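request received
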Amino acid sequence: MTTAKRDTYTPETLLSVAVQVFNQRGYDGTSMEHLSKAAGISKSSIYHHVSGKEELLRRAVSRALDGLFGILDEEHARVGRAADRLEHVVRRMVEVLISELPYVTLLLRVRGNTETERWALERRRDFDHQVAELLKAAAADGDIRGDVEVRLATRLVFGMINSIVEWYRPDTRGASGREVADAVARLAFSGLRRA
Amino acid sequence: MTTAKRDTYTPETLLSVAVQVFNQRGYDGTSMEHLSKAAGISKSSIYHHVSGKEELLRRAVSRALDGLFGILDEEHARVGRAADRLEHVVRRMVEVLISELPYVTLLLRVRGNTETERWALERRRDFDHQVAELLKAAAADGDIRGDVEVRLATRLVFGMINSIVEWYRPDTRGASGREVADAVARLAFSGLRRA
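response:
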């Protein structure tokens, strides 16, 4: 667990510690006491920065959501054939997931017990919906196979991407974000079999 | 929550209730008290059937593991080109996951805090390893693309399959096990793009 010196504490480092604790104990199972211990600062020092743990949750999932929604504004997500835009979005989703791993992990584990969690779930559904629309457009163009229902295909591709949070560890000698993104794009669009 | 009449209680119905509670509360968060309440029978009646909650966990994950390992003994998993055997195994994994949904869900959520959980994780790793070996053999035959590392490909395909427990609900009007199995096999082996 990271601890930081009191005098160098910033909202950013506090957020980073909070996300670790949320991911480890679950958001529901985390108290201000746990956050105070993990951060190595008093509860009143935490309240100096934020109104409480729900604000930390909102900031953390916002960071993940901003990363994901930012993808949809990128030129390659807006211009070109739907199938190519979709491939760009899938590749970038993997990159954002890996570069913002603890934040996206937290986002994917949100349950909906508080207002902030329900807001996060709503935003996630909105994102998923926009990606599903891209898949639908690519199917209408005839670029995507017609024998797998769009909603099912979306779920399975998201399942493949989101599963990365379960095993990807940045500190192990393994594939880089770019390599995993290439692998996901190849499997999702062309499959395992050699053409 | 299912409740059953005391006089019709069998080890099978007790197991089915226990798995529901484990999946809802988490295995660690479930007490004999919770199981007794959910089953509508006394704790001593439960002890008449099993030695405790760990035995229920072992029986539940065994049912999932027996289903999965049973696939590897099927003729189409043993005879033929590795890529075709792999495709059979992937398709059947989806079918077993859906037919034994609560049991496989529990298996996938096992954390490793008790001996039974560690045993289950070990058996899961063994299964995953055997599927990875099949993928490796298919790559050696030249039937599987060479530009995605075998371990990474295995993880992503498992990620796609295992994600099904997060959204598949047997009671909603949706795809059948066979339809989901077809979709997974098509996406995993040939990808989204129209050839």
